Amino acid sequence: MNIQPALKSQYHAALNTLREAIDKCPAAMWNDPADGFTAVWRVAYHTLFFTHFYLSADEKSFKPWERARPEAQYLGPLFWENNRLPKSCEPYTPPEIMEYWNFCDRLIDSAVDALNLDSPQSGFPWYKMSKLEHQILNIRHIQNHAAALATRLRRGAGANVGWVAKG
Is the Cα dihedral 6, 9, 11, 17 positive or negative? Predict the structure, then answer.
């Protein structure tokens, strides 16, 4: 069975749900930290960063996006000195996040085709699972954050983010 088409479709569907949340986010909510350090832009960037990262064969083969900012991918203070956002971590604008979204969406098909989905190892030592299961986990990660943003937008702006079943 060739699973690549299904993985590609679900990656695109999950990213399309995230895109809709980004598109529907009012300017007043974009930088609002809501419940701590998780402004909408941070959740969107975090989601895209790890989508991109885990579409790589392994940590060593990952090539960061040209506009990546150090430590912007982290959502919590665990990695930050004195629980403060790094000064180098200025908020991304909606157009910048959409640029990264487009980059990730264009990457999916070729990246999935290049992965060895039969590998018993994810390529990332902190994930003890097969490459295939790791890709499913990555899709679930996108959808988890897209759903969280959709809930925030529904509650905070009355915006409805639809469900995308297939990419």
Answer: negative
